[in-house]
């Protein structure tokens, strides 16, 4: 398993390099100009100086190499210095800088990341806690009223987009019932029990919007996988040995049924970040999804490049995590 993980990590390096080149090339070809929003009274020579200061007068290969050096070398070194307090080299190094704010892009992402992780992380946990029991019970009691209701609700959750669900939640629970706030207060500080309760209340709606969409998909995969395994010979053998139904279902069938579901869960995490882009806009969550929208609207190419590449890294990383979990869940799978 260790050797397989090392091989996959080494294989991920050229994969990520190819992805970074494609992202950089596509966004570099986009018709965007950092001086486009400046007043028309600024003379052309000043605009040319601004473009030169941003490195836009360099050839494409040079700009790509500089971005690679900034992202893969300078930014990790800067993070190590921030965590340890050490000074590596002279401490002065060129970083990926936002065109709009002139701030380092990684600092902007780190500032926004906790809000997104709170919403995305909690939604993923809630989705798994909802989907797995529903999928197991629906498969074990196939065609029962529980299965029929679960199928209907999951089809609704799978079909309705998150932006529509978010608007329905706001109208119902915020406008009419006034249970939860419609706008997420990013600056809220938890310093008492009442402030903690308010934090939970403002997290409920954006978290549940993402959780319901994810749970609808996971429950269908869980049900299909459970139905397939319930018909296998090892289940009949376990029952013939006198094992209780609870042990057969929860220990034997559930473990094998989780193998394909693990893939969906792992690959869903980057997708949840994509869904959070829309959800953060609806509930005004000041996270990386909103940061990406701001970067796109302002033609902030370094910011968009970095965020898009981080999403690609998440996909590659969670693919590797899913492959490793295969061997843990099913001892028959060997990578050596």
From TrEMBL:
One GO CC term on file? plasma membrane
Name the membrane topology term: Multi-pass membrane protein
So where does this one cross the membrane? 9-30, 117-140, 152-176, 196-216, 261-283, 303-329
| Species in which this protein is naturally found | Pontivivens marinum
Q: Could you say which protein family the record assigns here?
A: Belongs to the binding-protein-dependent transport system permease family.
Instruction: Give the protein name, as stated in the record.
Output: Peptide/nickel transport system permease protein
- Its principal location? membrane
ABC transmembrane type-1 domain residues are: 113-322
Pfam families referenced in this protein's UniProt entry, alphabetically? BPD_transp_1, BPD_transp_1_N
Localization, per the record, is: Cell membrane
Give GO terms for biological process.
Answer: transmembrane transport
Q: Which UniProt keywords are listed? A: Cell membrane, Membrane, Transmembrane, Transmembrane helix, Transport
